Known about the structure:
Elements: H1 2-8, H2 12-28, H3 32-35, E1 40-44, E2 47-50, H4 51-68, H5 75-80, H6 83-103, H7 110-119, E3 124-125, E4 128-129, H8 131-140, H9 145-166, H10 173-184, E5 185-195, H11 207-217, E6 226-235, H12 236-241, H13 247-256, E7 262-263, E8 266-275, H14 282-300, H15 305-312, E9 323-328, H16 334-340, E10 352-354, E11 357-367, E12 370-371, H17 374-408, H18 411-417, E13 423-424, H19 435-438, H20 441-449, E14 460-462, E15 465-475, H21 486-516, E16 526-527, H22 541-549, E17 561-563, E18 566-577, H23 584-613, E19 616-618
Antiparallel strand pairs: 1-2, 1-19, 3-4, 5-16, 5-18, 6-13, 6-15, 7-12, 8-9, 8-11, 10-11, 14-15, 17-18
Helix pairs in contact: 4-6, 6-9, 9-23, 13-17, 17-18
Amino acid sequence: MLNIFRKKRQSIVSQGIVLIIMIVFVFWGVGTYMNKGGNAAAIVNGTEISRQDFGQSYERTADRYQKQFGGQMTPEMMKSLGLRRQVLEQLIQRELLRQGAEELGLQISEEELQRTILEMDAFQAEGAFSEELYRGLLSGKGFTPTSFEKGLKEDLIIQKVSGTLGTFTDVTPAELEAWKDFAREEIRLGYVAFSADSYTEEVEVTDEKLTEWYKDNGEQFKTDPQVQLKYLYYTFADAAAAVHITEDDVRNRYDSRSSEYQTPEERHARHILFKVNSSDSDEVKAAKKKEAEDILARARKGENFADLAKQYSEGPTKDRGGDLGFFQQGRMVPAFDKAVFSMKQGEISEPVLTQFGYHIIQLEEIKPAQVTSFESVRDKIQEIMQEEAAHDIVYNEAAKAYEDIMLAGSLEKFAKQNNLVLKTTDLFDRENAPEEIASQQAMLDAAFSLQKGELSSSALEVKDGYVILFVEDRKEPSVPDLNTVKDAVAEAYVKEQSKELARQAAEKYLQECREKDTLVAGPTVKESAFIKRNSTSDIPPQLVQAAFSSDGKQHLGGNVVDVTNTFYVYAVLETRLGKDELPEAQLEQLQQQLLESKKNRLVNQWLQKLHNEAKIWVNPDVLQ
């Protein structure tokens, strides 16, 4: 129905319908739909997954797909992938895991959450947690600290569930031994390759054959959809040029936000950390404190603090000699922060206990608070004020124009009434969009989401302004006439037919080999050296995988192996266990992989059980 309104919204009838709907909503509300979870994307055992959470998760997932495929993912492609259902199912699984963890008595404390964030490399600046970097990175990814910490808490719960269930799994010596033999197994192959390139000359190309082939395969030559646009573009740059900001305006802005132009005092410190966990015994904690006191005594006697940190610290800054760089008050955990900002330059603290353990702190330097002068930031403030004013002007102008277009009945009539020249395009597809449109992904996506005769659903914000789009014409994908793509069709036909000839030759040869139970003479038979499953060699990995997957030790491969445009017939000539023992590091890695695999299976089984027993309601609207 929304599509109908968009197409017809330029008529007086549609304006009346919209007004009626607005009145109904104002006086009657949204009715029983709300009572059935209308604001929820799903309900899991009575707990709602909000539409907002679903929408944000979907947008982030869709954005990842767009970046992965170079911005070529259309709404139709997203729909064919069932992306909305995938995202919702992931949210349902996370909620089931959260509820399951709650039943097991597992939870993440605020201390654990804080420690995890403080130790994340992404939020470190000069060796210390940076709140400015933290908030900046989250904002760039569309998160608030609250939403990010909620998601991180769920991730930590999932890790804790996996760890807890993992205590019920183990890798037995017999299992490890079997996998060791599996990893050491080697085979030597004989094989014959049938390449499609060798058969291209045998393919006969005639107009009759191409015509017949094109009837069944024309879809692969289908054209891309094309649109022709008319649009109004309201740019921030045009509005900014007309904005006049006085000296008094700039001064008032500077004075009213004086805190933004002050740099608080910063302190440069090093520390040596002796880790202590809340679960450690009193004896362990006492031993760690004693160790810290012993190193403190050595530092105060004159030993180099950085060298001591490199040797004894258990923190992430160990390799930098415990260097935390400069930081402002309030950036570190409270006990650490309080100690640093009560010290004198050059002083070394007593052991300070935080949730991370015992710290010995050396204060190296104090950088006093500074105020940035008005003169040095005047031009920057003026530029910001012009941009802000321009943004407001353009938004209001575009919004007013959109309302007036509705009243005028069409974009064309509105332009005539206001002596405006509409920007227009010829028909274009995504790959060949005009530069002004191609450079604006939001504008490009909106253009191809509309049908012929449709106006954009609102004034669309783009990176340098607002735009109102109207689709003057739209050309749907179609199969072109054979003559216009004949060369491409002939090339595809030869490629397909030569591959088929190669496959037939390989199948025929395999049949001959089966009668002798060996690779028969005729085609060139190549032999490999001994190879392992994960060997890197000239043998295609698909062929190696097929050979190692075969039953028996020495035999002819049961099927032809298809690798791109080449078909292989093979036989396992010899099998043996490699003489080399697995290196200790590789053995440990293998054992860990086996353990993680068993853990994952157990967690998935547990999750499936939760899913089967849960009461789950899904809002069908969010899947549309």
